[in-house]
Amino acid sequence: MKYKLLSIKGQGGVNIGDYIQALASSQFLPQIDGFIDREKLKDYNGEECKLIMNGWYMHNAQQWPPSSKIIPFYVAVHFNSTVKDKLLSDESIAYLKKYEPIGCRDTNTVKLLQSKGINAYFSGCMTLTLGRNYHSEIKENKYYFVDPYFVTHWNLYTILYNAIYLLFHWKPICIIAKKHPDPKTGFRKKMIMTTFYREYKRFFRKEILINAEYTNQQSIEYIRKFPTDEELLKEAERLVKCYAKAKLVVTSRIHCALPCLGLGTPVIYTEDAHQSEASACRFGGLRELFNILKWDNGHLIKEFDGKTPLDDTSSWSNKTIWKELAERLATQCTRFCK
Fold first, then answer.
1. Among 13, 148, 193, 224, which residue has the least CB neighbours within 10 Å?
2. Contact, 14 vs 232, CB < 8 A?
3. Same domain, 53 and 151
4. Domains held by the chain: number
5. Which helix (H) or strand (E) holds 122?
6. What is the pTM of this model?
7. In sequence order, which ranges of 201-318 are alpha helices (DSSP H)?
8. Are 154 and 300 in a shared domain?
9. Can you give the residue range of the structural domain that contains 106?
């Protein structure tokens, strides 16, 4: 039997979190015999293969349901609200019923499938299992800020406010602006990073913010640097190994935050309080797993216990309710891949 992984490349670049999901699935495969593009599932005409179907579905709904040459295991799937009608046609419902029960990454997908008479349950995300192969007992004194959420709505007041704040905090903001991967440059970038600094400084000491590593998980640069699926999977593995050794990760990416739970790395999830329905529908059942900083009307709001601002002496721990989900996922995937 052949075993393959899902790959996902978009015109706007790569979300390396999709390959972190693939990495989680790869832990259970006896071997990796290639990749199948998530947006071309119906077109697949290679050898019959087993495929763990965890992921976000999908941009190209015309490619659903998948090829009959794919033997699927439906676990940790999300059907987005933007394409739910196309993905739950009569043909699709009949197809999914053949592979019940369907494990869903979020409770919104559970409700959506159950409303169509499909046996579905909340499985959580495959990345919760990454501690199986990638947990590290060695922790470095490193802080990672991975796409931490913040936004500035520019008007005369915010321009003046940020300009004055920048003047009085020039050095630390310049250091952070140089590190942050935002492609903007010069004074404009410093003004943007002023918004980040003045709010996040309320919860993290200045020393943490200026010494942290800043990175992103979605960029066109991933395609330029890592043109093949194999290289992208390797880069995902490199990031996971970094997160495994981190002292703390702060991120708005669920496929950074969820892996950190599985790895046993302290993580704070940052979110937009006013995100779109298409974005919010991904989080049912997952949000409860995190310690959260919520961005609401230009300010961060803490939704967890504990003293802030955090410094190098602060002790930090995640919630533990994710562990049962991870154990069940590991058992199910091991059984499927035998």
1. 224
2. yes
3. no
4. 2
5. strand 120-122
6. 0.95
7. 206-211, 221-225, 229-245, 254-263, 277-280
8. yes
9. 2-128+325-336
